[in-house]
Amino acid sequence: MAVRRSFKFLLRPTRQQEIALAACLEDHRQLYNAALEHRRTAYRRAGVTIRYGDQSSELKHIRADDPEGQARWSFSSQQATLRKLDKAFRAFFDRVKAGRAPGFPRFKGRGRFNAVEWPKDGDGCRWDSQPAHPTATFVRLQGVGHVRVHQHRPVMGRVKTISVTREGSRWYVVLSCDEVPAEPLPATGAAGGIDMGVASLVTTSDGEHLANPRHLAACADRLAAAQRDLARKKRGSNRQRKAVARVAALHAKVCRQRLDTAHKAALALVRAYDVIVHEDLRIANMTRSASGTIEAPGRNVAAKSGLNKSILDAGWGVFLRVLAYKAESAGRERIAVNPANTSRTCAECGHVAKENRVTQAMFRCRACGHTAHADVNGAVNILRAGLALRQAAQAA
Known about the structure:
44% of the residues lie in helices and 20% in strands. It has 396 residues and is of the alpha+beta class. Residues 316-382 form the Cas12f1-like TNB domain.
């Protein structure tokens, strides 16, 4: 079985290449914003809907009028930027039809456009552009040149698309590869339920706790100091730019640490279980601000804010995303279940009551007296719910 997978590597550009990469990103940002303004103006003034095909056909004229700017870059990468805008509009209309908050596509500021994509290897870009080089790997980008890549692991499958992203002061290349061979693990014959939390990132139905390192909390003092330093800088100054870079570097480090924790936790689970059952969490809903207004705020606003920060610091969404593709590659089955009442239900007798959850860590059933760690009790209930769904699906 083959799967699709992405490989991300750090770039080592020279100073001139870094300037060219920044110029490429800026020109693509301006193209995106100009295309958005084109759509808005055409509809507002003439009631005309502009689509991707219309704007793509205008690219040749834009490039001809700007030989020192837009014409420097790959035509296909500019088409990918226009497709990105078209995708944003399609998502907007889908939300309108579904009755959700629409969120009209917005113009991209300098800090909100950080990626350029080349849709096909060999069209304006080339992975491993110097295969005869004995020690290093390079990626060739039109208008930039051969950029050295810190390739820390082999690339498998067929490279389909190439993207370059900027994260703070670092540049990365992301390869999207098809036909990557799956790496199935030996069967264990075990099934496990997992309960995600703040005290422990993951608690399994077997009673194992995977720690939550709280990376943001560990970095909070340094981040607060960097943000205070940023607040004192004159807007638009060179010192402010450096202060912004320091804050961004700290956030990027936390992001990398969180991703590393997710990879290690997910790998431990797919090695241990053939079937993994987890909660189908709506993290965006769970981390909304406390209800109320400025004049009449809701109750426990500070406590809710702290809980939201702890949930986001734990990185549940990152963990579930990593678990999904690791389980697919390893040939493991993953089941998501409704989390309703899993923390209030007794795993022994099935009694459901809010009072069963004595504390964050203690569960004591009011009906049968069963006691257990609250997260372990919840993980057992999650496992049973998942196995019931699996059995019903097999019987259907």
